[in-house]
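Good morning C.,

I know you're traveling, so I'll keep this short. The sequence:
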Amino acid sequence: MILVTGGAGFIGSHIVRALLADQHDVRVLDLVAGRAPDGAETLTGDVRDPDAVDRALAGVTAVCHQAARVGLGVTFADVTDYVSHNDEGTAVLLRALAARRFRGPLVLASSMVVYGEGRYRCAEHGLVPAPPRRREDLAAGRFEPACPHCGVPLVPEAVPEDAPVDPRNVYAATKLHQEHLAFAFGRECDVPVTALRYHNVYGPGMPRDTPYCGVAALFADALAAGRAPAVFEDGRQLRDFVHVRDVARANVLALTAGSAATGAYNIASGTPRSVLELAAGLADAAGAGAPRPQVTGRYRLGDVRHVFASAHRAAEVLGFTATEDFAAGIAETAGVTPRAPAETVTT
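The tokens, ready to paste straight into the viewer:
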């Protein structure tokens, strides 16, 4: 039996379907378990509740931990909710697994946000860390990070898993702490732990009409309401957009790979695209009458400029390569019907 926490959420529900299609027995623990896919055993409960977690773990031989509070948040006042759902929830789960002498595997939903800014190179000084962007630069439209030594704009590169981590907002800090807790548990209890660092996930079933969802969902929600997608900065910031079905397949591979899968892996398409390219693709898919994206110049201090992935390690160790076509996936995403967001959803 495989337990999927958050299995009624966006990514979690796709993982459940993929596991069921692969003939696995699946149990879901979720605050809104009634939305879980048919065919899975469902338990309604909070991952922060020791009793609910203990019931959910009975007879379980593998755990896929997706339950989390996601997104950048609205204000710093959200910090207690993020720490409660993500850090405390993970701690309660790990304590219960240790008490049961669970031997794994454990797959954790992590995120590319743990890297902070991506990987950058200066023509003169080589690889250099990008300093946190300053409010005065962003307000003046100076969005590109500059070399801290010579001030020349840096060139972004794909981020490998051994890149330094540097979380730059509350959500990112909690995702990194989840990794630290899970790997500490794995070392102490001899359990194979895999952290899948999802890049920007999109696809059918995205939570919509909520400030906690991702940029693809925000754009799709605007188009569904007849509004132009509002693109922050100049729209040239680079991300890796990966389809949710590819993410679900990566989880199945990690859950069935055994101890060889221990460690952190980027789960990404391997092809960087700009945020404006995403918004334009969604507008194109929505039809000729859809409003075009508007580049606003607005910014959020907690955002990073460029972050996209090296996907080589996941291919070599897990056998994972993204296969979903971007244009087809965007068209599918643009046509989904909005669904009410769950309080706790997958990352």
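Safe travels,
E.
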